[in-house]
Amino acid sequence: MSVQTRDLAIEADAPIRTWFGVGGRADRLAHPSDVDELSTCIQMEPNLRILGDGANLLVDDAGVEELVVALDRPALKRIRIDPDSGRALAMTGASLQRLVSLCARAGLGGLEGLVGIPATLGGAVVMNAGGAFGQIADRLVCVDGLDRDGRRVQIQRDRIDFGYRRSGLGDLIVTAAEFHLEPGDPGVLRERLKTTMAYKKRSQPMAERSCGCVFRNPTLDRTIDDIGRADRRVSAGLLIDRAGCKGLSIGGVCVSDRHANFFVTSPGARAGDVLALIDAVRGRVFGAFGVELETEVVVWRRR
């Protein structure tokens, strides 16, 4: 069922699409057609939740009561590339993978390391998406967004407190981002994409239902033999593997045998199974190494 608020369509009791393929529903789900309608949503409910690709998201089985806003309309997914200036502008709902591919095809390099990361542009900026091959902040020029009063703002890169898997953008709702890239040979850039993607396919369960990395890579407060030195960031997947968690399962969810920081869901799984497995893995890693893992996946719960 849906209702109409001015020109804005709002669905009631709507499913929330995530890569896990589990979890509850939204009491209300809006589909704004452009930034103006997104601003209207914010003015209606400042504490709304933004739904991009649903890749880094787990929704509790009870669902959420706040207004959920899906960034799935064409005007919010546009990408504009100017090879002459080396600039690329992408709207908040644009596919990060499409942006990476189009830039390489246009002979603009700098984003190839982000290939294989499932995200929309807005979510990628907010979490400073990246990995061993770079992060999105590396090429960012500025961010356009809306504050929680629905007002438009623009923030330059040097005013954004980016860090590991964080942006410091607070409550800002990203609407677009601009990037400065380097000219390169399209053929070489495409080969770089293929090589990076092939590596990720070998080391990650990319064909299965997973949100990507469940936990952030922690910084050790002491040296752990065969793991890492104090004050160094280490792989959460390595800790989970060494704690004997590969293949561990609860309900319809298991720790991937290919990469221990990926959880894979099967038919019949529930969000509660994922949450229980998160707790179990965190407990085993802490018991084995005294390291407290923090989740990278975002969890929505009913308040």
Based on secondary structure, the structural category is: alpha+beta
CATH architecture of the largest domain: 2-Layer Sandwich
What's the CATH topology name of the largest domain?
Answer: Uridine Diphospho-n-acetylenolpyruvylglucosamine Reductase, domain 3
Largest sheet: 5 strands, mixed
Mean pLDDT: 94
* Count of strand segments: 19
- How much of the sequence lies in strands comes to 25-35%
Low-confidence stretches: none
Could you characterize what this model shows?
This protein has 303 residues and is α+β, with helices and mostly antiparallel strands. The protein folds into three domains: 2-74, 2-Layer Sandwich (Uridine Diphospho-n-acetylenolpyruvylglucosamine Reductase, domain 2), CATH 3.30.43.10; 77-201, Uridine Diphospho-n-acetylenolpyruvylglucosamine Reductase, domain 3 (2-Layer Sandwich), CATH 3.30.465.10; 206-300, UDP-N-acetylenolpyruvoylglucosamine reductase, C-terminal domain (Uridine Diphospho-n-acetylenolpyruvylglucosamine Reductase, domain 1, Alpha-Beta Complex). It has six helices and 19 strands. It has helices at residues 35-44, 96-105, 121-126, 186-203, 236-242, 271-289, and strands at 2-5, 8-15, 25-30, 49-51, 57-59, 64-70, 79-82, 87-91, 108-109, 130-131, 134-135, 140-146, 152-156, 173-180, 182-183, 249-250, 253-255, 263-265, 298-300. The strands form six sheets. It has a five-stranded mixed sheet with strand order 1-2-3-6-4. It starts with a strand and ends with a strand. The model has no long low-confidence stretch (mean pLDDT 94).
